[in-house]
Each structure stands twice: as C-alpha cells, then as structure tokens.
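Question: what's this shape?

___
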Amino acid sequence: MTDNAYSRKKQPEQVRRALLDCAAQLAVENGLSAVTLQAVAEAAGVTKGGLLHHFASKQILIEAVFANILAEFRREIDGYMAKDERSFGRFTRAYVHAAFADHELGMRSPWAALSVSLIAEPALRQLWSDWLEARLLDHHETDSAPMLEIVRLAADGLWLSDLLQPEIGPRRDLTGLKSHLLSLTSEAAVPVL
C-alpha cells in the first residue's frame, strides 16, 4: 500500500510543527532568504499546497517561526528564573543568562537567522515588543529599576555585537562581562534616588 496524502492519517499538529522546524533550520543554515515556501515544503516532506494550508504566506510562516522562537526563549528564561532564589532582578538575571547562552551558539542560534528581519520587519518588531512588554509587566514588581533596564540593554547590545562579528574564529570569552552584568542586578547595586 502506498503512503500518500489520501491514505495516511492526517496529523495537522505534527505537520505544522515540522514546517516550523524546517523553516527555522533553513534560516539557521542558509539565512532567511533560503526560507522559501517550496524549500520549506520539500524539507518537511509536504506539498506546497499542504504548507499553504497551514501558513497562507511566507510572511505568516516567518511570523509563526518567530513566535515559536519567542515561546522557546520564554521557556528558557522561565527555567533560569526557577533556579534563582532572589526575587529582585530575577527576570533580568535570566535574560542575561539566556543572552549569553545564545552568544555561545553564535550563528547556529535561531535568533541569529531572524535577527536582521527583526530589525527590518515591522511585524516581527511588534511581536518582539509585545513579548518584552508583557514580560516586563509580569515582572514589574521585581525588575523595573533603571539599573536592571541598563543590564538588559547591555545584554541586547551583546546580541547585536554578535551579529556584527564575523563567524570565523573562536567566540569571544565574555565570562567576566556576564559576571559583572549579573552583579549589577543585586539590590545593593541599584542606587537609591
């Protein structure tokens, strides 16, 4: 018996997941320009029509990949937060840990593949802004001090700096910088106004 679209059991969530994973992998390996509907469909083993059933356009697919990466980033940050016993600055410390973990991945990071588009694409910028605003609102009680915002902006600066570095050679050792940023998240480091 042949395995085709008419005889196999439909599994829309698995197909959707495969499409998102393949699109992200293509972006990581070859850049965002390699993410075409045809390439993603072929990589996932579905027809282009099957892909379009789940994602009506390349833009919608890219936004879904980005939303998926944001969800993974949230889980990563939540994992760091769960291990942190101090409440003041907990989200910011987790944010720094996640940024430095991404630094170790370099261009293999899913963020690297979508980062240029984040800057250029208003829809992706809005997704990022909404995500960050919601997280900061969730953690307003513990992470609203100006020094903590400075630390998060420094972590963002590291991320941008990594994008601008050539991918040849070893990654910079930023252990000292990470330790310093984390030390700035203690209540003692925050100036009283």
